[in-house]
């Protein structure tokens, strides 16, 4: 059995290092405060809470949730679940530290001892509830962090947040693959269930593969699959962190049982590494950069794959031209040549039924 989560963190905006609305990150609270012997804590993991930086906002944002997948040198993965919300930033008195007010620069230092208020307008600072785990129980992470957040903004006298966090870290032990479903509660009058995967190797896709086909078009997914087999760098673009994680999970699942591709989810990447296959999940577009060449797939296998996938994801296209409307599900079979054909219902003449 394994712990549901290894560490729980409260990560926030570092006001001491604030410069022009941008800041560094700091750990406000950490549970447990000592490292697990089998899973040392990596302090740099907190930088994945806000991939685009810790920035103040002028309006109150709704809470968000996403998961980062980190892979170490040994190929072991750590799933980092992050729930982000914003808090009102109260004006604070900060002494200026700009060296332009230094006498050595030949400028007046009249403002050296003059404090000022930041910010002048109402601003909101991000704060994150963050947990790490070696298990990919995405929905359980979302539910647990959601309950902790709810207790934080609407506290109850008989439920302490520390109790919820302690139950998440120490009281929930997930069975290995093939085990029975685990029913548990973290102490907030909740009822949750985790179903271990049936196999330790076969990936549990959920809706990730289906959503990838719907959002990126069928022919684009085939191109992505072919590019992965060709050992080409694949770059996903989206305004949603969650969609990035789900898309990477879907592509990896499609490649099972092949071991030719290992997924690294990088939310921010430098421009010089922007070579390969670009997939825009928001606009459902695919583009190959100029300095990379992707050999075309053989025509017959390509068309056969597309035909099979269209029958699965868009069966209405195949049924649109049928002479007789099918009230039920179309029965498909393979002929002697390996082609998939449909069994049409036999036409019955009802005109002479009573004669």
From TrEMBL:
Domain of life from the UniProt record: Eukaryota
Regions crossing the membrane: none
Any one GO cellular component localisation term in the record: cytoplasmic vesicle
UniProt signal peptide: none
One GO BP: regulation of Rab protein signal transduction
Listed InterPro entries: cDENN_dom, DENN_C, DENN_Domain_GEFs, Tripartite_DENN, uDENN_dom
Name of the protein this chain belongs to: UDENN domain-containing protein
GO molecular function: guanyl-nucleotide exchange factor activity
Positions of the UDENN domain: 6-355
Pfam families in the record: DENN, uDENN
């Amino acid at each position: 059995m394994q712990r549901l989560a290894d560490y729980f963190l409260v990560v926030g905006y570092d006001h001491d290092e604030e410069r022009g609305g941008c800041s560094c990150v700091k750990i406000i609270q950490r549970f447990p405060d000592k490292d697990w012997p089998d899973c040392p804590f990596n302090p740099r993991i907190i930088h994945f809470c806000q991939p685009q930086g810790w920035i103040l906002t002028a309006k109150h944002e709704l809470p968000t949730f996403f998961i980062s997948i980190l892979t170490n040198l040994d190929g072991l993965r750590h799933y980092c679940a992050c729930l982000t919300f914003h808090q009102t930033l109260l004006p604070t008195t900060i002494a200026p530290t700009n060296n332009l007010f230094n006498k050595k620069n030949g400028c007046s230092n009249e403002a050296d001892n003059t404090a000022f208020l930041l910010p002048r307008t109402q601003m909101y600072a991000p704060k994150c509830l963050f947990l790490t785990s070696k298990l990919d129980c995405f929905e359980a992470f979302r539910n647990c962090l959601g309950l902790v957040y709810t207790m934080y903004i609407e506290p109850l006298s008989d439920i302490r947040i520390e109790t919820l966090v302690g139950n998440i870290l120490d009281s929930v032990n997930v069975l290995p693959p093939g085990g029975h479903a685990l029913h548990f509660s973290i102490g907030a009058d909740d009822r949750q269930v985790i179903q271990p995967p049936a196999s330790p190797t076969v990936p549990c896709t959920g809706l990730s593969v289906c959503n990838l086909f719907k959002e990126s078009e069928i022919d684009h997914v085939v191109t992505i699959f072919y590019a992965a087999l060709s050992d080409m760098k694949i770059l996903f673009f989206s305004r949603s962190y969650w969609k990035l994680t789900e898309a990477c999970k879907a592509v990896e699942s499609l490649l099972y049982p092949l071991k030719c591709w290992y997924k690294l989810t990088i939310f921010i990447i430098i421009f010089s590494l922007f070579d390969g296959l670009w997939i825009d999940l928001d606009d459902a577009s695919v583009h190959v950069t100029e300095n990379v060449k992707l050999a075309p797939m053989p025509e017959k296998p390509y068309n056969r794959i597309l035909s099979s996938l269209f029958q699965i994801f868009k069966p209405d296209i195949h049924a649109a031209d049928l002479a007789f409307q099918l009230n039920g599900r179309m029965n498909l079979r393979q002929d002697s040549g390996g082609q998939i054909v449909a069994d049409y219902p036999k036409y019955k003449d009802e005109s002479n039924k009573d004669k």
